[in-house]
Design the sequence.
């Protein structure tokens, strides 16, 4: 199977560990991810905040490139995924004039939903060599992956399941909780740190109350936000994993502690205590 | 005691602003009946000077000056919780976003200066490289008028430098920006859309 891949700016920067674990997981599953050649930034929050027209036009360039390749797209960053989907819908409605040829016919996949399809899930379960038994985690989806449902296509937006299915497939326990898609405030950190900290603290507190030892995410902004916030906290900190990091850990016979060295909230202690490393 | 506040009725101030907003956003703003579900669902309502349901009311009453001067339009996270839970399908987040667009193009000074300047800086970086590098973005933002001074004052600059060092040590900071070769196309797009850019 072949898919085009839109990494987005985060995966080239702070989330490069996410990018590496995605490559490892897709390699193991035998899926070819072909990076869209010469992709450009989707505009993220800034574009739609200042100009709705630009927020449609900027992602459209990448959609046109993917269409030329004739492949469906996977966009692992929640914000990119949301902006690409939004742009495609608007282009189809012919509301905004864009300089690129676009039919809007390719599918844009959220990475968790793509991997949580029954057939993919079966293959994932088959490839688990070392189940992560005994790890208790909450799955945190964030806002952009699931909302607005008319853009993302998540019908279970109140209690999404894709990440939970994937975490369960590794053998770990995914705990039910109520803050799966409450915004973490990452986008407001520069300018209103107080708001960001209130939201982030709330999510981490609720995760601890639910009995979690770790948080599992699929969005690079959520990861860096929750991870950076706990910098320097020694007691009761919760490591924040990309779900692909856990999949990779469960797939490989000989895991390497260096995969996790990019975390600010060090997860190695927890993984060693559980006997995974 | 008699309430001396002047009572206003929808339509009294003219309907042109409401009609304009409905036309530009495609949202049926008139169908809001002030149930306040949006405000109750909003994760940042406590930080807003005008709450989400009040935003909608002000649009209905035709008071753009209150809206463009509010902190709310900058504080809103566009997390879409309000729109998702509105029983009448009012796109509250879309309305707030459109007001933010309008404010950015107006001469009204933004109530949350840092947030507005950050968005502008982001789009400038995108225009320059076609992609956005986190290190360059932060540096460009810090060099905008008044930002560095504010950050030194409240201590965020020190935090930021320490975080930068921690990230650098872990190989998460990329000092050289990656460029998109098609950046010319992007710049051409900016030129074509300049009427729609702030």
Sequence:
């Amino acid at each position: 199977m072949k898919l085009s891949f839109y990494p987005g700016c985060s995966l080239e920067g702070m989330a490069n560990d996410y990018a590496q674990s995605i490559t490892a997981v897709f390699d193991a599953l035998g899926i070819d991810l072909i990076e869209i050649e010469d992709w450009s930034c989707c505009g993220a929050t800034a574009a739609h905040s200042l100009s709705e027209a630009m927020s449609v036009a900027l992602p459209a360039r990448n959609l046109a490139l993917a269409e030329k390749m004739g492949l469906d797209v996977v966009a692992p960053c929640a914000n990119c995924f949301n902006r690409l989907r939004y742009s495609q819908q608007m282009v189809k409605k012919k509301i905004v004039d864009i300089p690129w040829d676009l039919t809007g016919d390719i599918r844009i996949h959220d990475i968790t939903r793509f991997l949580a399809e029954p057939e993919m899930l079966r293959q994932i379960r088959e490839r688990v060599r070392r189940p992560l038994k005994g790890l208790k985690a909450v799955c945190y989806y964030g806002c952009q992956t699931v909302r607005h449902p008319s853009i993302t296509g998540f019908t279970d937006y109140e209690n999404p399941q894709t990440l939970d299915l994937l975490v369960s497939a590794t053998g770990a326990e995914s705990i039910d909780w109520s803050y799966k898609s409450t915004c973490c405030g990452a986008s407001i950190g520069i300018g209103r740190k107080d708001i960001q900290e209130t939201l982030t603290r709330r999510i981490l507190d609720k995760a601890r109350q639910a009995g979690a030892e770790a948080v599992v995410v699929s969005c690079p902004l959520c990861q860096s936000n929750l991870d950076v916030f706990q910098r320097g906290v020694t007691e009761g900190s919760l490591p924040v994993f990309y779900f692909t990091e856990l999949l990779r850990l469960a797939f490989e016979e000989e895991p390497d502690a260096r995969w996790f060295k990019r975390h600010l909230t060090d997860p190695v202690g927890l993984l060693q205590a559980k006997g995974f490393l | 005691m008699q309430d001396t506040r002047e009572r206003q009725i929808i339509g009294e101030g003219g309907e042109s602003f409401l009609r304009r907003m409905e036309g530009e956003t495609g949202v049926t703003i008139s169908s809001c009946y002030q149930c306040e579900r949006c405000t109750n669902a909003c994760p940042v309502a406590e930080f807003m000077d005008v709450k989400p349901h009040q935003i909608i009311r002000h649009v209905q009453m035709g008071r753009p000056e209150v809206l463009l001067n509010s902190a709310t339009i900058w504080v809103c996270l566009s997390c879409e919780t309000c729109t998702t839970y509105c029983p009448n399908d009012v796109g509250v987040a879309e309305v707030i976003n459109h007001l933010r667009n309008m404010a950015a193009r107006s001469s009204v000074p933004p109530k949350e200066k840092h947030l507005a300047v950050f968005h502008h800086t982001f789009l400038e970086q995108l225009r320059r490289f076609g992609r956005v590098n986190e290190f360059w973005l932060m540096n460009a933002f810090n060099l905008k008028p008044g930002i560095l001074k504010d950050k030194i004052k409240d201590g965020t600059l020190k935090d930021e430098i320490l975080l930068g060092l921690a990230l650098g040590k872990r190989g998460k900071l990329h000092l050289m920006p990656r460029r998109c070769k098609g950046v010319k196309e992007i710049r051409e797009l900016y030129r074509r859309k300049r009427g729609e850019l702030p």
Notes: The domain at 116-273 of chain A is CATH 3.40.50.11810 (Rossmann fold). Chain A touches chain B through 52 residues (CB under 8 Å). Residues 52-69 of chain A form the longest helix (18 residues).
